[in-house]
């Protein structure tokens, strides 16, 4: 288990030294064919996607990629997908459904891109459509938060049957910096905000948001990917045995039970 | 579904007439609730649309005496021990008399039964916490069971950060309920009102079969200031308004308040018998 504080983990996964999504794709999947474009407007390089095998199982993979060097990072908006990125992901999920291929999503994003062009092309609508479609997608979905799970832009690739967290990965409703600005008008208190928000992998398991945590093996990328590959493949094999109706009922139930509220007598 | 007998919806109850003050979101002038109910929540001072408290929103649309509330007892709790949240909730409950940021139930519009939810921006900016998520989910489940259409009035500051990632998950939870209701062949009409932002825009606000919006309402995903910083240029005045969304193809119609009841009634009537 990670010994880092929540904020240290956020800084760790945001560090340029951290492997990017595409590197995970190359390590986890074999015989890959990359597939591009949303067929509506453009190709968003912030999402790297295609088909390949994981441990012998044919899958559709969808990964957010921050880019390896500064040039790539600029092009990929530092891993903040545009609406067309989410629409590309959805196109490939529907394609996976057609061919009864499971979907594996690797999530690492600060959030959906926040530019004027994204708003013009319906950033909110694109995420909403992914959630709506994923909740009824007739094929198994396994999502792994490999770095940062930044709010709705991350959830749009994680409305899944199983969600795993890498040991240092975080999942948050708002960036701790943004939260600190709102709470204390002081972005410098992001460290405190990160504590309050409960963003760690262990928090996610405790809150019923993730099924498990995958060890990063002290930074040994090969060992990490070996374990992750085994975990994802095991889940896919189990999920593939379920009849579609049961799969969808279980996916709904998985999210249905998340929430803490009180119910008084007065109606 | 041909053999399923239609269940009767419960009898409605009248709304209470207690007086309270409402602040105009446009010019900040303060008005009596009774006065605003007469104008349809149009500000007597500046003529702009005042944000309508959830219960009055339903009152303005439902046939008189037809609204029956569901799940009134569900309320938010500060389960993460988040700084200031407990007090914030207490204050919101006291000020609004509500227990959560959404009112749900069943009503008739021009005689046609319809499930309804309306968000209340006075309650922690109508952000989407567990209570909101649970009530909206239950409403869509109820509507599916009763084979009713859903009319939803959205306004929200987005996710409720004080409930952490659990708040975020409400987007998926509600989307799942909308999806099941939709798969049952049932109608969902959304009305986007000022302001509908963040996680609300990125989930149930944009999942209707028909999406209506009120004139000049702010509707968007990212906050205007964030967009300006990202883009590095000034944005047009109408950026992220209902009219902007209509221009870009993201809403079906911008409907003025005085036409809303008739428009909704017409849409509902066109779907009677559909989906069965
Ligand atoms: Zn006014």
- The CATH topology name of the largest domain in chain B reads 2-enoyl-CoA Hydratase, Chain A, domain 1
Helix content of chain A: 40-55%
CATH superfamily heading of the largest domain in chain B: 2-enoyl-CoA Hydratase, Chain A, domain 1
Please count the beta strands of chain A (DSSP E, at least 2 residues each): 9
Shape of chain B: globular
Give an overview in words:
The complex is a heterodimer of chains A (267) and B (276). By secondary structure, chain A is of the alpha/beta class. Chain A has one domain (11-171, 206-253): Alpha-Beta Complex (2-enoyl-CoA Hydratase, Chain A, domain 1). Chain A is built from 12 helices and 9 strands. Chain A has helices at 6-14, 21-28, 70-75, 83-98, 116-120, 123-134, 151-155, 176-184, 190-197, 201-206, 221-240, 244-256; strands at residues 30-34, 47-54, 57-64, 103-109, 141-150, 162-166, 170-172, 212-214, 261-263. In chain A, strands 1, 2, 3, 4, 5, 6, 7 and 8 form an 8-stranded mixed beta sheet that branches. The radius of gyration of chain A is 18 Å and the shape is globular. The N and C termini of chain A lie far apart (45 Å). The relative contact order of chain A is 0.14. The model of chain A has no long low-confidence stretch (mean pLDDT 96). With 276 residues, chain B is α/β, with parallel strands linked by helices. Chain B folds into 2 domains: 19-50, no CATH class; 52-272, 2-enoyl-CoA Hydratase, Chain A, domain 1, CATH 3.90.226.10. Helices cover 35% and strands 18% of the residues of chain B. Chain B has a 7-stranded mixed beta sheet, with helices on both faces. A two-stranded antiparallel ribbon of chain B has the order 1-2. In chain B, a hairpin with a 6-residue loop joins strand 1 and strand 2. In chain B, helix 4 packs parallel to helix 5. The longest helix of chain B has 20 residues, at 164-183. The radius of gyration of chain B is 18 Å and the shape is globular. Chains A and B meet through helix 5, helix 6, helix 7, helix 8 and helix 12 of A and strand 4, helix 4, helix 5, helix 6 and helix 7 of B. The complex binds zinc ion (ZN). Zinc ion binds at residues 24, 26-27, 29, 43, 45-46, 48 of chain B.
